[in-house]
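Troubleshooting: if your tokenizer reports a length mismatch, compare against these two reference records.
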Amino acid sequence: MQIRDHWQLNPDIDFLNHGSFGACPSVVLQEQQNLISELENDPIRFLAPERELTSKLDEVRDTVASLVKVPASDLAFVRNATDGVNAVLNSLPLKEGDQILITNHGYNACNNAARHVAEKTGAEVTVAEIPFPLDSDTDVIVEIEKQITPQTRLILIDHVTSPTGLIFPVEQVISLAHAKGIQVLVDGAHAPGMIPLNLTAMAPDYYTANHHKWLCGPKTSGFLFVQPELQTQVRPNLISHGANRKCRNRSRFITEFDWTGTYDPTPLLAVPAAILFLETLYPEGLDQLYQKNHDAAVKARQVLCHALQTEPPSSNAMIGSMASVPLDATRFTKHECSPAALQQILFQQHRLELPVFQLWDSDHWCLRISMQAYNEVHQIDRLGSVLTELTG
């Protein structure tokens, strides 16, 4: 059995976009289906928090907490990282003149959430303009520090950037921010399952991430870590029974997030099966998976840079399982291309599935490849040949 056979991906498509929505292995989908059948067999027993749901969620919480190395009592569940970012932003006591600092590499949805909260509260959003390509992760620190003012209340930063596929030095950003009395919210959407995490050592004020991307869990499943002293302030985006339910030796923080109205908890409950699948995929467990995917991403980037006659846009140490390569928009003019049009050409004409992004302006694009365990070098070779043809 080949590794790819664990997934239900269309064999006629070279799927190089695990980073967008993930892909769930068959064994995890089967576990979720078993849970759905159990739920529908006796909905009250399964869903009522006072029956079985609370204990089931706590088992998952213990598993995830062990993976990211924090106390389980500091983890709440959210539908996805965007949900977690919104929950934190909407809970901040911002006032007119306060500033939220974001970066130009940030995920658009979360940057939009920051702007929305700023509009409601009279706060301002400032942007650290971090270059791409960049010489080192020091560039990230330098550009963020330039934008910090006495009014900066929060830094929202990606751990692994979505469009540019870079691992940002969040530990150093957190140290810098805390020295100035500034809180940090880390959007870790891509990090679990891609790189090792120790949130206790990292010490962010808030950290939110997805289970459905590199952990390969079912969709609509993620977590939100909040430091204990801030948990009374952070509320879910949907207020429900948890707001006044007896907590029974549980924090209000967890009680509220565990129940935000009727929902399907099976994506969360299947997460331990996803983690177990990844841990047993290779003899040396997750560390071997991280290294193999990283090595594949480095090799893939080399192939694409050679095809496009460009240099790697960052050090190898700044990428995990994803890599982005800058595109010179002028080389695609004969195809009257936009990034969206190029992405469609790659998919419709060549059955290559990967995103193409416009960055800061119409002349700066990049394409991003994801290298999960099921991806193979020949897929990248074929992409390189197609790009050479399109730019020739």
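Reference record two:
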Amino acid sequence: MSVISLDSRKKQSFAFDSPIIPPLFSVLFVWLLFWLFVPNFGTVRTVAGVFNAASINAIVVIGVTMLMIAGEFDLSVGAVMAMGGYIFANIMVADGSPVAAIGLALLVSTLMGAVNGLITVYTKLPSFIVTLGTLSIYRGLVWVYSGGEMVQTTEKLVLYDWLNGRLDFVNDLLPRANFRTATLWVILLAVLFQIILTRTRFGNHIFAAGGNAQAAIAQGVNIKQVKIICFALTGALAGLAGILTFSQFSSVFVATGASVELTAIAGAVVGGTLLTGGVGSIVGGLLGILLIDTLRSGVVLLGFPSDNFAAVVGVTIIGVALLIDWIRDRLS
């Protein structure tokens, strides 16, 4: 058996099993704590609100987690999300084809991600620096494309319901619930990408790219191609998040997606993804995002100023990261 397949499978098993334990217990602990001490937190309405808030971020974190496993970062996903939302919105508001609206939005978003990958692998600059630059470039392109104007609509289309409308078959069973279809998209995408990471050769290559790139290259893996594809998929998922955002709120503006990149990275890290690459899981990233949005809702319900939320997230990231390292040391 080759070094890559054996080592990568070990990494994948560890990534799926061990790192998700700390965020899983953290989520359960925080939910229990808030349920006991925060008024109205245990209501169906609040739970649905947490899942709805987490869903958009979760779609972004799926791509960011995969990319971080490959050893790279993307700080431009918020701007890509805004661009995807604007392209979709402009075509739909102009009574264009829904297929064209979704297709073009995803195509442009994918290309924006691929550009990040091409610059990173061929200049050999750190992706943190590259995407910090493209963050400003892409956000500037959003301003140019939109003219700084918000796009909104009052038209209610079935397409919007399919993309991110109310899940009536669930909500009808739960009084005052307001679950949305984005939750279903998250589940489908999470299953798909977790299978890719843990059950395919390409998934092996992603782990190898972030864990031991030199060994992967020696085994004939095209690391550059793997990373470019990961960047492109991350861009596509960010664009999809923009589409779902417009479908839910019927509006998109130039600040759409602001700070999403930091939230996504935080979710991935809290979920057990190593900043150095090679270890992580989609499930862990989703748990990380769920924990962050749970904390956000809890802070609001407790009546704390919204500015305090950043401090809460910061403490949580450090605490969970320390817990993950402690568990990893114990297991090793």
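Descriptive notes for reference record two:
- The radius of gyration is 20 Å.
- Residues 1-17 have pLDDT under 50 and may be disordered.
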